[in-house]
Amino acid sequence: MFMNELFESENMTTNNRPFLLLALLAAFPPLSTDMYLPAIPLLQKIWQQPLAIVNLTLVGFFVSYCFFLLIYGPLSDRFGRRPPLLVGIGIFILASLLCAVSDNVITLIVFRVLQAAGAASASALALAISKDVYNGFERERILAYIGVIMALAPMLAPIFGSWVMVWFSWRWIFVVQGAIGAIGWVGVWRMPETLKTPSSTNALQTAGIYLQLLGNRRYIGYALMMSLVVLPHFAFIAGSADIYITRLGLSEQVFGYFFALNAAAIMAGSFACTRLLRRVGSRGLLTAGFAGILIGGLGMFIRWLPGPWGLALPMAVISFSFGLSRPPSNNLVLEQVDRHAGAASSLLIFIYFMLGAFSMWLISLDWTDKIRTIGVLATVAGSILLGIWLLIPKITDKKFSVLCPEGGGDTT
For the domain 19-403, what is the CATH superfamily, name and number? Predict the structure, then answer.
């Protein structure tokens, strides 16, 4: 029903063409990781490697992904959005096929790093294109709808990946990723250029742009703060296969269903954001989202449910809160800059995924109780976010009243 409302909305009749492409581009990271998660315990056995080594295929992906984000953003401001996207997605397709023929963990790590170098173009520039095409409250709402649709990727990807493993082998997971990349490449090829006024900056000036962004205290402060939500999220991504399959003894297929529950919770949170944004306002949604992360973390830490549900249900609360708060938090960070949207979105996602990579490394260590470890991360992140957010001066309310002049702003 919400899809009909989306495309019939008067505000979107002229701007709905790039919507599905933006959702696909933004979904490249979960497609590149979550489809592959069911294979991790199997690769541990095949290659006789500990989890900390096999998980470098995840950690290395995100570290490479983060650094290339900083390259694609300024390139897109200088040469337009299409050329870097076409090159980046082409690299992604090639690297996916190379991952499929890897015969040891080292080569897989190397090709995953290359795959990330291509994938970085997609999600960073999807955010920049959204700023090119949509404005103000409309962009905030579009980000929420994209959050709903792209949540289907992590919800379905591990299930589909487990089916591929049953019918074919783990190698075909990467072949499928390459095929999805090809669809994205064709979509970008047919997309008109969205950047109307390219920048004339050179390499030194590009470095200066990042220095300017780092000197923008409101931008960098909000970016660092809002990125804390990824700590339990990425710890769950990296640790869930080990917890569900190795430690709790579930099959790859059942793992996919439990992981899908987590992704469905993110989608539900993003959908709730689209419905509540005007009624509750950005400030109210962020407050509720941060409180939900704290509550879910506490529930996981005290282990109030036995077995897999002791992880699944509290994590669903955290994931719902993540989906609820992420669209307005992204929009709030981007509203702190007036120029260089590509560089600003790249730096934001760089911070986001570097914290995520740290969290993935952390959960890969030999913790006795990984469920409780994720609970600690969620409790700490939720406490810091909620505490700081409630102490932020009410000058931010003026920003929200500008973003949502028709009633979307908070009235407190």
Answer: MFS general substrate transporter like domains (1.20.1250.20)
